[in-house]
Amino acid sequence: MNFKHLLEKKPIETSVPCRVDFGGTLDISTFYLPLAHLNPASFNMALNLRTFVTLAPWTKNRIKISSRGFESIEVKQDQVRFDHPMGLMFAVARFFNAHGVHIHINSTSPPRSALGGSSCAAVAIISAFYAALGQEIKPEKIVWLAHALESSVAGVPCGVQDQAAAAFGGANLWEWQMGETGPKFNQLKVFDTARDLEGFNDHILVAYCGIPHVSKDINKQWVDSFIQGKTIAIFEKIVDITKEFYLAIKRKNFALAGQLMVKETRLRLGMTPEVLDNTGKKLFERAVALNCGARFTGAGGGGCLWAIGEQDNISKLADAWKALLDPIEDAALLDAKIDPDGIVIL
């Protein structure tokens, strides 16, 4: 379908948030189906480091994609490659049989920072195409479509928590289940009021280590070890810890939440020591020394860490993390807060 004429009338702009998480990997069917008797769940929080997408008119039969941190690429509609860094975005365009479109992606989070950026972009692009077609924006449908498209081109098992955070926003526990006709999730909000959600910002930190991550390697190790039966007991423990973590935050027991975060991170380190790079290890150890919890985001191996704790301890940790990050090129504390909103059509 030639979107040029539609978009000449009005370019479409959308945005979605990225996320930090706890209990990741459990959102991959490889894990949540064999562990179904435990009702596996993942916790995440949407961050106001949003990804903005614009659909603009372009040459008939051609698709152009521009994204901050990557070289722009333009191809004929029938010559897209799904093994390209923009392969997922091309897969979204092909799903809508789209051409005559320039997809411009501007993420305000650092590139490849393990904050779910590519999944966020897919959710935003899908939302934009539906808006261009004048169709209703249905967050749950968009979550599963984005997940299915990513799984189809990634070459590795993919989770769904990134898409859920992007589409719905806020702080949530996501329960992964099998429904009558396919997988489904239950959304359990952490806080009942906007005031409580806003207050949670005083208990968290997010830091970028300056080194982009590559999630496939570590995720593949987790998947392989689970399939081989070596780590089933460990992931059963992670299911329980994730639920305890959610309840601790819901009850505003941030000290306990920090202890649980440390416990889960150590379990992951036992399986894959490289989940924290050298900077990440220093940040983690400093957090523990100041009675806070710290954890990698996504599949780790570079990218971001986030921390949780009582307000006074988090304040001290912010100074300590800043001192550790200042000498490292591109590393920094991120000015990130919880974003209550998911998909926004601008």
Q: Could you walk me through the main structural features you see in this protein, from its secondary elements to its overall organization?
A:
The chain has 346 residues and is of the alpha+beta class. The protein has two domains: 4-191 and 340-345, Ribosomal Protein S5, domain 2 (2-Layer Sandwich), CATH 3.30.230; 194-333, 2-Layer Sandwich (Alpha-Beta Plaits), CATH 3.30.70.890. It has twelve helices and twelve strands. Strands 1, 2, 3, 4, 5, 6, 7 and 12 form an eight-stranded mixed beta sheet that branches. Strands 9-10-8-11 form a four-stranded antiparallel beta sheet. The radius of gyration is 20 Å and the shape is globular. The model has no long low-confidence stretch (mean pLDDT 95).
Topology:
Elements: H1 4-9, E1 12-22, H2 29-32, E2 41-57, E3 62-67, E4 73-76, H3 87-95, E5 101-107, H4 117-132, H5 139-154, H6 161-168, E6 171-178, E7 183-189, H7 194-199, E8 204-208, H8 215-227, H9 232-250, H10 254-271, H11 278-289, E9 293-296, E10 304-308, H12 311-325, E11 332-333, E12 344-345
Parallel strand pairs: 3-5
Antiparallel strand pairs: 1-2, 1-12, 2-5, 2-6, 3-4, 6-7, 8-10, 8-11, 9-10
Give a short overview.
The protein has 346 residues and is α+β, with helices and mostly antiparallel strands. It is 41% helix and 23% strand. It is globular, with a radius of gyration of 20 Å.
Total of DSSP H or I helical runs spanning 4+ residues? 12
Determine the fraction of residues in helical runs and give it as a percent range.
Answer: 40-55%
CATH topology of the largest domain: Ribosomal Protein S5, domain 2
Sheet with the most strands, sense and barrel status: 8 strands, mixed
| The CATH C-level class name of the largest domain | Alpha Beta
Please report which band the strand proportion falls in: under 5%, 5-15%, 15-25%, 25-35%, 35-45% or over 45%.
Answer: 15-25%
Mean model confidence by pLDDT? 95
Instruction: Decide which structural class fits the backbone.
Output: alpha+beta
Q: Report the strand count.
A: 12
Question: Any guess at the CATH architecture of the largest domain?
Answer: 2-Layer Sandwich
Please write the string of helix (H) and strand (E) elements: HEHEEEHEHHHEEHEHHHHEEHEE
Shape: globular
User: Which residues sit in consecutive blocks of at least 5 with pLDDT less than 50?
Assistant: none
Rg value: 20 Å
Distance between the amino and carboxyl termini:
23 Å
Count of separate structural domains: 2
